[in-house]
Amino acid sequence: MRQARVNTPNYACDLSGICSALYELGGLIVMHDASGCNSTFATHDEPRWYDMDSMVYISGLSEYDAVLGNDDAYIDDVVEIARERHPRFVAVFGSPVALLMGTDFRGVAHIIERRCGIPTFWFRTSGMQSYVAGARQAFAGIAGRLCPEGGESAPARGGRLRVNLLGVTPLDFSVVGNAEALRDFCETSGFELVSCWAMGDALDQLMRAGQADVNIVVSSSGLDCAEVLARKYGTPYVVGCPVGSAASAELARMVSETSRDGVARRLGEGDAAASGGRKITVVGEAVFASSLRHCLAHDLGEGNVRIACPLEDPCAMLGPADVAVRGEEEVASIMRASDLVIADPLYEVLLEGHSHVPFVRLPHEAYSGRMLRDEIPRFVGPGFEDVLGQAL
Amino acid sequence: MLEPLSAPRVPVDLAERRIGDVEGTSLFPVGAEYTPPARGTWTIAHTPMLVPGAHEVYVCPGNCLRGVVLSAAEGGFSDRFSMVEVGEEALYDGSMEELVYEGVSDCLDRLGRRPPCVFVASSCIHDLMALDVPHLLDELAGRFPDIDFVPAYMNCTMRRSKLGYEDVQWRQNYAVLRPAARDRRSVNTIGSPFALDPGCEIVSMLASGGCRLRDLCHAETYQDYLDMATSWLNVYHWPVAAEAVRDLGERLGQEAVYLPYSWDGEEIRASLQALAGKAGLGMPDLDALEARAGEDLGRARRVLGSAEIRMDAAATPRPFGLARLLLEHGFEVTEVYADAVLPGDEAAFDWVRRHHPDLLVSAMVDFRMRLRGRDAAGRAEEAGRELVAIGQKAAYFTGTGRFVNMISNDGLFGFTGISRLAGMLEEAFRDERDARSIIQVKARGIEDYRLRPRDGVGEGRR
Q: A157-266 architecture in CATH?
């Protein structure tokens, strides 16, 4: 049974994806749940929780209110906080219990917005989808509702290409310098960074996203936002993460090309696994894994790389030889049939009894959470291929 | 003579109040909550790990699972933890029963060993769906007759119910115990993840009377755990354990006596007298122990000087009782972090209100706590004094590294417990620590238990 897991954990879920995406934007985020969802997010999925204040709360749903389907207390509490703290926006969504209760979040958001006059978002969550599903909605919601129609036409400094980085959260990039390295990538590539969605930039900065010439979708979480911005401003996008030297150079080239022809591009579209050489399996999020494959192929000469992706792949990064894996046993069988595996260390247990398969530890915050954060490398930008090469 | 603090502080927001302004014992309204990053308290994923050899299977939506499965990974008991991920379709298509039955079976089949006991944890949604979990576990017991199946309930919506989910988990922790021949020389202590302090009066009284104290925290084997059924008497120390004791009384006929984690001399004496009367035990020299506790507190007071003390309700179920004790011994207690006054602490709360009306009471989970400054220790230092916290949350909210890392009373009891606390205060004052790295670790102390499956406990029920 694919739902049964004996050895490995699951990925961060949709509620965490939303909270992570909106964390730095000055909004009021209130999950409709009793307790556990917020605790999971704050403890395992959010490395900024200790030091960076953000209004992320839980409604404290009680057994009686759950049974009776009473949403009044939730609405009243959110309105009270909003009136006292004046957030830039409000976001409401719920846990599995709220789903079962049939909470009408659209209606809840409407009432809250009417009562306190603050833009209020609602999101579809169940606590049973991945963080990608949550973050996609959150970024797209902000872009759709809060970015002004028509954009602004401030001139680029020195005629440089202007870009937004879309899909930047600690769940994919942690807090070990990768978000900063993405900014460095823009700088060294000669791009002017308009906004980073959403680490290091406030909401006002994000609202200037319409000024960009090209959007760079650096994780699956950013795709829907890119599509909203494309509809709103006609901005084309490129999908890929600058992992290592070759991917950085190629991504920069693609951005320039897309700025000229307006065609969406994906890093590594031609990087299907070659048949020769050792068979490497990368387990992870699709955009990162594809970008890592590009690094392996072009920086390190490892062309036979297959991706096992346990998450959705909205950007269509997976090639014909890649596998959208569902369940622990399927991941295990793919890993065991490989000559080398690159994955979060919590997958390594699946290779027990298969010690002949080398394992390269590459923790992913959305998987192992805080417990292996110290091991997460700065994988963005030139130089990572050296680190990876040594591990191989 | 040590100088008192210069002036009473004024509440900074609606989640902080002068205790003198509080009417009754209702402190703060219930509403949207913040969760501070102090994680040392045990959760319902950790508590079953006290049962030697037990395995946990959580059947929940992914978001619920993630917290517990990573708790297991961080706590070093991943190999005693499995999970079945509930998808949305199971809510609607009538497949939930099959998912639970087949999922748990699959986990056990793939486990590679046969645990003696399996806690099968369902979640809020199962309760709302009225899933008949006990029936499913009966079915599982038919398939795995050598395993004791125990339902567990990760139902967070019960948090504010008459019976909270922690109370229920403690009850379930002893659910396997079956009626057994009664041993008049065997006594259990029930319902704490921290072993009763071996130096405390209860332990010495029972030892002097030739009685054996059985504590789940000390159980080495599954048989040790099962043998708790032979005890004739259960002692317990805080309200969370009351449901477990009630259930054991009803099912096994075990008697009970409540010996609360109290900081009040009279109550400690009364409790110990009750134990002595119930079990026919002799009394220790309580006058001497109380005098020593007073001396120890006096010494700690001299060491701490005018240091400000703040404490939280996760450190002890009687924070106002502790505040009273320290205030009576001249300590500069200025604030108690508590969302509510817990049963048994009302009288101490009232005493503090009458005698120290300027003392502040602060919420712990109110939404305002997210945005309140956490630099009290720095401000105290600028004013030339130190700030010592009792409890992880108090340490976090004040930003101090001088703190007593106490959770749920830490097994401290009686006058000896007061003496121990005095020593812990001195230690906290002298040794500043990195609170950030300490308080974020879940289930403080779980690393001290032998958590891995051991020889002889993986072969089914004995």
A: 3-Layer(aba) Sandwich (3.40)
